[in-house]
């Protein structure tokens, strides 16, 4: 596993513990520029823990590298400064604020750095999510689940990340909306945004990703091209529910 120029994020022997209990165990993972990488696995596998620690929200052991450079003690500030953004499992929108104001807040750290391109960024987000444009004056708290997810992603994009990390964007959404949201996630590649997508919905995730890691009990059980994993017997039987259902 060599680190070439195009490797954006790399985790080496990455471990995360809650007290005595290790929830993420020696994970090796890379995201290259322009890639959509997914981490799939059952509930409790450690997906949220992995993503939170990779964003610097939880302490970790092992190594985290960005652009081949080791980040000592990853913190949210360092990750943001390197162009990483996270859309957490709880979307953390401001329900009493309009869609437009929620988006503007997502661009605040850029604004503070003197980069006054929020209008153009917002235009980009509206092109990706025309529904947000229609609802730009509506209170975020009154949006549907799918629209809320779009707003959470749009808000993260306002910071112009190079790597967008998404924690279960399909959670609680109807299948058609899941497809719509993930189709837009896949299109981020054209905007030069790489994606690390954590999903319990293995089928939806494997359909949009380039590569995948299967996380089981905190460790990588399997990794490969997403297309190949979609046809892997072990994945089909365990995660895709295509196995022959025996009549009870
Ligand atoms: N704050 C916490 N304190 C202690 N244990 C936790 C905490 N959060 C998660 N865990 C445990 O870590 C494991 C992984 O959880 P999580 O990362 O949320 O999994 P996933 O996102 O894949 O469902 C689970 O066994 C869970 O109970
Ligand atoms: Mg989770």
TrEMBL record:
Family the entry assigns: Belongs to the ABC transporter superfamily.
UniProt entry keywords in alphabetical sequence: Amino-acid transport, ATP-binding, Cell membrane, Membrane, Nucleotide-binding, Transport
Regions crossing the membrane: none
Domain ABC transporter positions: 9-242
InterPro entries referenced in this protein's UniProt entry, alphabetically: AAA+_ATPase, ABC_transporter-like_ATP-bd, ABC_transporter-like_CS, BCAA_Transport_ATP-bd_LivF, P-loop_NTPase
CDD domains, per the entry: ABC_TM1139_LivF_branched
UniProt GO molecular function: ATP binding
Name of the protein described by the UniProt record: ABC transporter ATP-binding protein
Record Pfam families: ABC_tran (PF00005)
Gene3D superfamilies associated with the record: P-loop containing nucleotide triphosphate hydrolases
